[in-house]
């Protein structure tokens, strides 16, 4: 089972997470948060725990985008569940000095090695997180680093709606 953990303002129809859901049907679902406009870490990971507890953890592959990636690493740190894997796309740097104040509780960012296979997909020109920082996340989490040249924030606006390469990466984590 694939579980999407979107970031700020959810993932619209032109986003790769929505594309995954359309392509994978009932094998992919989204954790729906109550407040997409003001993410709060504790509230978000509690909602994740509620949704994910109804599925066998060892069969789950989580896909996170932006602050959704940080929700995943905080969820793992708090609950310690062993999952099959995680695809962490354009992780958001909640420790950046200019980070929006309406996104709360995600700093400090857990920098512990993840206890399952993971991939960090990072763009060389992401306006949310410096590429060097994305490499730090991948290294700390023990994740394979997948580099996309000039991919912006790896979202619909950046041309990442129908993202076949993303489905291929997902297949590698499911295997």
**Low-confidence sequence ranges:** none
CATH class: Alpha Beta
**What percent of residues adopt helix (DSSP H or I)?**
25-40%
- For the largest sheet, list the strands in their spatial order: 2-1-3-4-5-6
Order of helices and strands: EHEHEHEEHEH
Number of strands: 6
The average pLDDT value, as a whole number, equals 97
Largest sheet geometry: 6 strands, parallel
The CATH superfamily is identified as Alpha/Beta hydrolase fold, catalytic domain
* CATH fold naming: Rossmann fold
Query: What structural class should be given to the helix and strand makeup?
Result: alpha/beta
Overall 3D shape: globular
CATH architecture: 3-Layer(aba) Sandwich
How much of the sequence is in beta strands? Answer: 15-25%
**Through-space gap between termini:** 12 Å
- The total of helices stands at 5
Tell me the count of domains.
1
Radius of gyration: 14 Å
Polypeptide structure, described:
With 175 residues, this protein is of the alpha/beta class. The chain has a single domain, classed as Alpha/Beta hydrolase fold, catalytic domain (Rossmann fold, 3-Layer(aba) Sandwich), CATH 3.40.50.1820. The chain is built from five helices and six strands. It has helices at residues 16-24, 41-52, 67-79, 131-141, 164-174; strands at residues 2-5, 28-30, 61-65, 85-89, 118-123, 144-148. Strands 2-1-3-4-5-6 form a six-stranded parallel sheet, with helices on both faces. Helix 3 (67-79) links the parallel strand 3 and strand 4. Helix 2 packs across helix 3 (67-79). It is globular, with a radius of gyration of 14 Å. The chain starts with a strand and ends with a helix.
